[in-house]
Write a structure and sequence with these properties.
Elements lengths: L5 E4 L6 E4 L8 H14 L1 E4 L6 H9 L12 E2 L2 E9 L26 E8 L7 E5 H6 L3 H9 L1 E4 L32 E4 L1 E3 L6 E3 L6 E4 L4 H15 L5 E4 L6 E5 L3 E5 L8 E8 L10
Bound molecules: succinic acid (SIN).
């Protein structure tokens, strides 16, 4: 039986809370509504979900096939779940996801969706922000849209000549970064503007963690325009912000959003479980 639940937008550009739905008991009809809400709002928040790891995996599979990510040590018993963890004693270091990014955009087929489930949350701080890259694209001038529509950019998870992942992807020791997949080394070319395969809308698809420079341009030539786009893409009016609580599940679409974990909770433990859904090769306005 389908139970009534409500989708309440949290901000104009992106983000909505889904109220009154226990995802473990959701029907196909419920999931169709959730999928439409995800297309409409980019990121959805579900409170009080009480999920065991198997249940999170099961919910993730309802959106597509599980993506096992490179780089990051997974849970021993669950290779498709990673623990996003910062311990209370890990102070004055960056946090996982602490710079604006789209998850693993350096993969040839980056994850379409990410599901992040909160287990332990600081009393204060540790919120996450998302930014709509549809809204960011829509707000550009016609001339810049036309230029960016033509461009491609190089993404990599582990830039050559460094001993670790992109500087801003450096993380707390608790996350357990491991160089366990050669695919993370590669330079991958993706369109700068991505046409979303479900909505058909255009979204910016570059981020300051994994995007290095424009294809067929030098880093020096690319820098000023890329920097402008990064700053524009995270203007406050394109964002929404979540205050987590244990039991909150967030589901977001990496094809049209960037996100950022706020690193303001030194002295507290923060633990979430993350799963990802396999995506497709990003396609630009010119194919
Ligand atoms: C992530 O970037 O996947 C983690 C975000 C968060 O911890 O809020």
């Amino acid at each position: 039986m389908t139970r009534a639940f409500v989708v309440r937008p949290m901000a104009t550009a992106c983000g909505a809370e889904v109220i009154g739905l226990d995802l473990r008991r959701s029907t196909e009809v419920d999931m169709a509504t959730v999928t439409q809400a995800l297309a409409d709002h980019g990121v959805l928040f579900f409170r009080d979900q009480d999920l065991q790891p198997e249940e999170q995996l099961e919910i993730t599979r309802r959106f597509g096939s599980l993506l096992r990510v490179p780089y990051i040590k997974h849970l021993d018993e669950y290779p498709d779940i990673i623990a996003v963890l910062k311990e209370a004693d890990e102070q004055q270091i960056s946090t996982f996801g602490g710079t604006w990014h789209s998850d693993f955009s350096f993969l040839p087929m980056p994850p379409s969706l990410t599901l992040l489930y909160a287990l332990e949350i600081p009393d204060v701080g540790g919120d996450t922000l998302w930014s709509s890259q549809y809204s960011a694209y829509d707000a550009l001038s016609t001339g810049l849209k036309r230029l960016l529509d033509q461009l491609q950019a190089i993404h990599t998870g582990w830039p050559h000549g460094t001993n670790g992942p992109s500087a801003d992807a450096a993380v707390s020791r608790s996350v357990g970064m491991v160089r366990n997949d050669p695919s993370a080394d590669r330079e991958i070319v993706h369109p700068v503007v991505r046409v979303h395969p479900v909505t058909g809308r255009k979204a910016l698809f570059v981020n300051p963690v994994y995007t290095q420079y424009f294809h067929e341009m030098s880093p020096e030539e690319s820098g000023p325009l890329l920097q402008f786009v990064f700053e524009h893409a995270t203007k406050a009016e394109f964002t929404c912000r979540l205050r987590w609580a244990p039991g909150t599940l967030a589901i977001w679409d990496n094809r049209c959003l960037m996100h950022l974990a706020i690193n303001d909770y030194d002295g507290s433990r923060r633990l979430l479980h993350r799963t990802t859904v396999t995506g497709e090769r990003p396609v630009g306005p010119n194919g």
